[in-house]
Amino acid sequence: QDASVGSDQTVNTYWQRIKEYFDERNTSGHFRSSDSLRQRWSTINAECQKWAGCLSNVARMNPSGC
């Protein structure tokens, strides 16, 4: 077992593992560094959080009995 997996691993180790996973499955031919992947995830995550907030607002707007 890999002792660095889980909550004890460093941020750099975590993103290096993500990069290795990406590189193994990348069929686009585009190169991305671990920093590039981290930045891309940051952008995607921010937009997903906005979307989740909008869905939550819509769910709260549904009046009873409709």
From TrEMBL:
This is Myb/SANT-like domain-containing protein. It comes from Aegilops tauschii subsp. strangulata.
